[in-house]
C-alpha cells in the first residue's frame, strides 16, 4: 500500500452455510405473494376513508391520488376483513421479512456498492425496498399499539412510505425475478426437508453471490431455519388474529391494543376513544342534548326521548378499526334513511355528521349515499339491549355497515343531509 492510500475496507464476516440463492429465493417467493396483499388492502383502506370528501389522510397527495369509488356497504364485514388482513398479515410477515434481510445481508454491505449502471439501479431499488418496508413495519407496529413517539402524522408518513416501498418493490422484482425463479429450482424442497444439520452443505460458491467463501459448519439445517421462521410467523398469528376473529380467540390476542375488556355488561367491548379523552362532559350529552337535522326546508330538532319513540331497527354489525381490531355487536336505533326523510331529503347524495366532541380529527364524517340509505345504517341509541355507555357514544352514535370505525361518529350532535 502506497503512502497516503486509504486502508483497505475491512471484510465483514458472513459465514453461515445456509445463505445462498435458494434460501433467499424461497423467502422472497413468500413475500412476493403476501406483500402485494398487504399493500393493496392498505390502499383500499385509504379509499374507504372517503378521499373524495377530503376526509382521508393525507388529503392532497398530488399525482399519487388513487382512483376513488363509493365504498361498499355489503358485506357488512368488508372493512373488518380488509383491515384484519392488512394488519394481521403485515405482522405475520415480520419474521419472514427479517429472515429475508438476514439472507441477503452480505449484498447490503458489498463494496464497492455498484460496478455498473445495472448494479446502481439494483442498489437504489434496495434502498427504497428495504428502507420502505422497515419504515412501514416500525411505524405500523407503533400505530397499532398507539405509541406515537415519532412526532409526525402516522397516516401521512405511512401513505408516502408505502409508495416508496412500492416503487422499490416493482424495480427490484423486475431485476431479480428471473434469478429468483432459477434459485427456487436450484434445490428440491423435498431434499431440504430430509436433510439434517449434520448433512447441511453450502450452495456452490459464486464470487458475487450470497454464499460465503469460507463458510462455518452449520449450526442449524435449512429445514430448521424455515421451521424457526415459520414458527415465529405462526406465533404472531396466534397472538394477533383474535383481535379480528373475536370469540374465544380474543383471549389469545396479547397484542390487542385496547386490552381484552372495556366497559361493563353489554358495553364491554373495545373503545378507540373514550369520552374522557374526547372531553365529553354531561353538559354536552345530558338532558339538554339535542340532535339537529338539516338539509331540508327547515332544521328539525329532536331530543333523545323523541328518537327512542320512533320506529327502531336492530342490526348485528361490526366496528372495525384501522389498527386491525374489530368487534361485532347488536345495535338498535333509528335508520338514517328515516332521519333523512324526516329532514326533508328523502334521497340524499351524502350526509355530514358532526359530533359534540369539541376537538378532534374525527369529530365529523361524511357518509356516501349508499351508506345513508342502507337499511342497517343507524343512529344507534342502544347496544346489546342496553343504552350506549358514554365511552360508546351516548346519547347517540352512527353505525354503518363496512364503514371504518372512526367514521362511526360518536356523541352525534347534528346531521346535514345533502342533496347534491
UniProtKB/TrEMBL annotation:
Record-linked Pfam families: Oxidored_molyb (PF00174)
Record-linked CDD domains: SO_family_Moco
CC annotations in GO: membrane
Annotated GO MF terms: oxidoreductase activity
Residues annotated as domain Oxidoreductase molybdopterin-binding: 282-418
Bilayer-crossing regions: 21-49, 85-105, 126-146, 158-177, 225-248
PANTHER family found in the cross-reference section: BLL0505 PROTEIN, PROTEIN-METHIONINE-SULFOXIDE REDUCTASE
Protein name (Swiss-Prot/TrEMBL): Oxidoreductase molybdopterin-binding domain-containing protein
Species this protein is from: Mycolicibacterium moriokaense
Amino acid at each position: 500500500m502506497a503512502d497516503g492510500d486509504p486502508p483497505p475496507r475491512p471484510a465483514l464476516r458472513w459465514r453461515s452455510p445456509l445463505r445462498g440463492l435458494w434460501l433467499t429465493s424461497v423467502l422472497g417467493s413468500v413475500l412476493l405473494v403476501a406483500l402485494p396483499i398487504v399493500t393493496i388492502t392498505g390502499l383500499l383502506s385509504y379509499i374507504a376513508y372517503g378521499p373524495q370528501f377530503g376526509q382521508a389522510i393525507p388529503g392532497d397527495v398530488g399525482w399519487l391520488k388513487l382512483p376513488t369509488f363509493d365504498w361498499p356497504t355489503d358485506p357488512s364485514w368488508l372493512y373488518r376483513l380488509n383491515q384484519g388482513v392488512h394488519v394481521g398479515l403485515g405482522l405475520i410477515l415480520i419474521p419472514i421479512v427479517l429472515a429475508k434481510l438476514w439472507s441477503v445481508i452480505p449484498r447490503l454491505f458489498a463494496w464497492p456498492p455498484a460496478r455498473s449502471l445495472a448494479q446502481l439501479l439494483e442498489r437504489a431499488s434496495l434502498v427504497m425496498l428495504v428502507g420502505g418496508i422497515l419504515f412501514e413495519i416500525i411505524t405500523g407496529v407503533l400505530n397499532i399499539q398507539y405509541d406515537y413517539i415519532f412526532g409526525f402524522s402516522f397516516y401521512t408518513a405511512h401513505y408516502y412510505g408505502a409508495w416508496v416501498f412500492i416503487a422499490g418493490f416493482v424495480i427490484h422484482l423486475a431485476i431479480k425475478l428471473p434469478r429468483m425463479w432459477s434459485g427456487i429450482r436450484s434445490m428440491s424442497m423435498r431434499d431440504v426437508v430430509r436433510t439434517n444439520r449434520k448433512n447441511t452443505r453450502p450452495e456452490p460458491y459464486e464470487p458475487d453471490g450470497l454464499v460465503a467463501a469460507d463458510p462455518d459448519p452449520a449450526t442449524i439445517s435449512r429445514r430448521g431455519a424455515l421451521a424457526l421462521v415459520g414458527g415465529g410467523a405462526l406465533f404472531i398469528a396466534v397472538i394477533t388474529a383474535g383481535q379480528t376473529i373475536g370469540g374465544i380467540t380474543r383471549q389469545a390476542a396479547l397484542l390487542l391494543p385496547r386490552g381484552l375488556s372495556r366497559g361493563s355488561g353489554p358495553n364491554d367491548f373495545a373503545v378507540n376513544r373514550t369520552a374522557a379523552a374526547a372531553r365529553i362532559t354531561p353538559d354536552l350529552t345530558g338532558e339538554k342534548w339535542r340532535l339537529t337535522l338539516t338539509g331540508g326546508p327547515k332544521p328539525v330538532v329532536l331530543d333523545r326521548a323523541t328518537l327512542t319513540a320512533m320506529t327502531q331497527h336492530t342490526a348485528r354489525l361490526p366496528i372495525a378499526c384501522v389498527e386491525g381490531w374489530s368487534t361485532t355487536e347488536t345495535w338498535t336505533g333509528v335508520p338514517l334513511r328515516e332521519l333523512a326523510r324526516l329532514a326533508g331529503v328523502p334521497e340524499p347524495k351524502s350526509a355530514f355528521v358532526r359530533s359534540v366532541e369539541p376537538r378532534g380529527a374525527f369529530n365529523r364524517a361524511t357518509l356516501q349515499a349508499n351508506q345513508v340509505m342502507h337499511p342497517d345504517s343507524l343512529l344507534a341509541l342502544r347496544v346489546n339491549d342496553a343504552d350506549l355507555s358514554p365511552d360508546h357514544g351516548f346519547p347517540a352514535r352512527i353505525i354503518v355497515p363496512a364503514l371504518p370505525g372512526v367514521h362511526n361518529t360518536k356523541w352525534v350532535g347534528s346531521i346535514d343531509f345533502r342533496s347534491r
